[in-house]
Each structure stands twice: as structure tokens, then as C-alpha cells.
Amino acid sequence: MNSRTIEIVSRRNRNIVMNVIQGHFATTNSHINYFLDTTQVKSMHKMAKEVSKVFAGDFRDTPIEAIVCTERTKMIGAFLAEELSLAGINRDQDIVVVTPEFNSFNKMLLRDNVQSLIWNKNVLVLSASIATGITASSVLDGINYYGATPAGIATIFSTRSDIDGVPVRSIFDNEDVPGYENCSIADCPLCKRKVKIDAIVNSYGYSKL
Question: What is the assigned CATH class of domain 2-208?
């Protein structure tokens, strides 16, 4: 599959790149025709810092007291907290950065010792990608459940501009990946054409079949 890898440069910051692979992939909730590899963006500290600068500009005028990092985005979250505290409405704010757990029903879980860190706070959600919005919506439900207020969502890739009325800001979108499709298993056109699945994918990467 690596021979099919295409590198896409962000239109928002030329120092941020994402690898994509066209094929037939299965996620927990759907089937997709492109695997969006955000590994470098989340793992390389220089690129993660560039991402944080973009998001800091997006949310400079939004009160942010905590960042909930999902899908292994905590390094970006730490840089983002620092960038937000340098200027704008969050200047000199000591911003909390936490990573939640998820149970077998994909519901967000915060342990007792972490819950108090976001209680009554304005929370920014940080994620790797948003396609169907199912996981992001579940995270927003969790934030409300733990007594916090969702202030926005920052994600590396998104097909959506909002989730449940909460604004989404992304580094890449559909314009960067023309023809990107995310379908239910029942409606997947590749399955109907009997195209075999290349890999099972999630936020950690892919496992070839």
C-alpha cells in the first residue's frame, strides 16, 4: 500500500503535511476510500507545533480553560495550550491538558482525579479526524456530562464545519482530499462492487488484511 501514498501539503500552513492512501478501508463506524495518515502530524514535534499555531489563531478569541485530547493528540495539545496562553483572550491562562479513556461503548471516561480539572471549564476538543462525527459527538456528550462547556473542536482533518452546533476547525478538509467518501457498511459502493478491504484502520494506523 505504501506505493500508493500521496503527500498532501496544508493550504493553511506549508510546513504541515499529511500522507493519504487511496483504497478500501474499514473503520469502527464506516468504510472509507482514503486512509488519512496523521501519524507524522501527531508524532513529529516541529509539525505538531505548527499545527498548534494554526489552531491558536482559530481560537484566539474563544475562552479556553482546558483541552481534551483524543486520538493521540496530546503533544499538539500541550503546544496549543502554550500558544493560546501567549496572546488573545487566553493570555497568561494556565490551560489544563487531559486525555480521556473510552469504554467499550465508545463513551468518554474521566477518572475521579481528572474530573475536577475540567469541571465548570470551557473545553476545546482536539482530535485527529472527523468524518461521521459519531466519536466527536460522543466526546461532546462526555464533556457536558462532566460539567464542562464545549467551546470548539480542533482536528487535523474534518468533513464537517460543526458537530451538534459546536464549531470545528481543521488543518485539512474535503478540498485537500478530492473524492473522499465515508459510507455506512450497507451503503459502501466498494463493497457493492466486491472490492476487497485493504486494511482495518483507526487513529493508531492500519492493519493490512
Answer: alpha beta
C-alpha span between 198 and 35 (Å, rounded): 10
Query: What are 169-181's pLDDT values in tens digits?
Result: 999 999 999 999 9
Segment 89-99 shows an average pLDDT of 97
For residue 26, CA distances in Å to 29, 45, 67, 137 come to 8, 29, 29, 20
DSSP state of 12: S
Burial of 94 (0-12, 13-18, 19+ CB in 10 A): exposed
C-alpha cell read off for 112: 475521579
The helix or strand, by DSSP H or E, that contains position 115, with its residue range, turns out to be: helix 112-118
Q: What is the dihedral of CA 161, 129, 110, 74, to 10 degrees?
A: -110
What are the angstrom distances between the C-alpha of 84 and each of 48, 136, 196? 14, 22, 45
pTM value is 0.94
